[in-house]
Every structure is written in C-alpha cells, then in structure tokens.
Amino acid sequence: MVQRLAQRAGYRITGQTGSALIAEGSGRSFYIWANAGTTKEISKAAEREKWKPLGSVEGVEVYGDESLWRWWVMEDFVVWIHAGPYMNSQVPSLEAMESLVRASETVPPPR
Fold first, then answer.
1. pLDDT tens digits, residue range 83-101?
2. Distance CA 17, CA 37 (A)
3. Are 65 and 55 a contacting pair, CB within 8 Å?
C-alpha cells in the first residue's frame, strides 16, 4: 500500500529499512510507512511528542513538526513520514504534500 501511495504521488522508492520505505523526488527524501491506528489512538503520543496540526491538505489534517515529521490518518491507518536517510533530507512541505494525501485517499489500505 505505502509503495503504491508514494509512487502514485510521484515519488520513487529507492530502498527500505525493514519497517519503512525510502522515497525520493522533487529534491526531497524521506522514510514513509503506515500502521493501524486512528487520530484518537495516537493523540496521546502527539501530545507527548508535542506534534501539532500543521494544516489541512485536501480536507485531511496533517500533523507533525517543522522539519522531521508528518503524519495523517487514512481510514484506520496512520501514514508517517520522517526525514531521511541523509543528513540533509527533508520532508515535503505542507503544500507539496497534496499529492501524497490525495494518493492516500485513492490507494486502498491493507486488510
């Protein structure tokens, strides 16, 4: 699911860590993965990590921090993005995440 999501959004998969894929494109590189969960279930972790809503993309709330993290809920799954694997890696800006969020709405989650 995550590979199709990233590819549909215009990123290429260049590797994997065992738990995340490495996506690259548009001058950005990041880890991407998904796990079961809902906004309510991860709100405590968000509070603990001080993640905040960054804004809405295509009507979907995106959370995270300014430089390393982005996440959003897709049905019963949370899609996570983290800067990596290089020291100068950057997550997509909120504006650039439109293709990822849109793709997550069209790629069916695993069942």
1. 999 999 989 988 888 999 9
2. 21
3. no
List pLDDT tens digits, range 15-51: 999 999 999 998 899 999 998 877 677 777 777 777 7
Q: How far apart are CA 5 and CA 2, in angstroms?
A: 5
How far is residue 109's CA from residue 77's CA, in Å, rounded to a whole number?
Answer: 7
Question: What is residue 110's predicted lDDT score, i.e. its pLDDT?
Answer: 62
Task: Give the pair of three-digit tokens for residue 88.
Answer: 């100068």
3 state SS for the chain: CHHHHHHHCCCEEEEECCCCEEEEECCEEEEEEEEECCHHHHHHHHHHHCCEEEEEECCEEEEECCCCEEEEEECCEEEEEEECCCCCCCCCCCHHHHHHHHHHHHCCCCC
In terms of Cα–Cα distance, which of 94, 77, 85 is closest to 33?
Answer: 77
